[in-house]
């Protein structure tokens, strides 16, 4: 498995995790828990942005990994 393929797999898994955390935030009745879930979702979003940027760099440098 190439680095690009592993990165795509990781991005997919983290996207699912982010969706789950956001769903927990929506369902939570506890305001403190809701805030923590939203903070976690925001951090996952930042991480996903960074990983997507890295994937774009890899695909730009090595077009065969598209």
TrEMBL record:
InterPro entries linked to this entry: DUF1657
Domain of life (superkingdom): Bacteria
Short name of one Pfam family: DUF1657
Name the UniProt record assigns to this protein: DUF1657 domain-containing protein
Species assigned in the record: Ammoniphilus oxalaticus
Lineage, uppermost ranks: Bacteria, Bacillati, Bacillota, Bacilli, Bacillales
């Amino acid at each position: 498995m190439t680095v690009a393929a592993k990165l795509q797999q990781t991005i997919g898994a983290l996207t699912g995790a982010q969706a789950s955390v956001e769903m927990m935030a929506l369902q939570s009745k506890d305001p403190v828990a809701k805030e923590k879930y939203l903070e976690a979702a925001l951090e996952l979003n930042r991480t996903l942005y960074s990983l997507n940027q890295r994937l774009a760099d890899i695909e730009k440098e090595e077009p065969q990994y598209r």
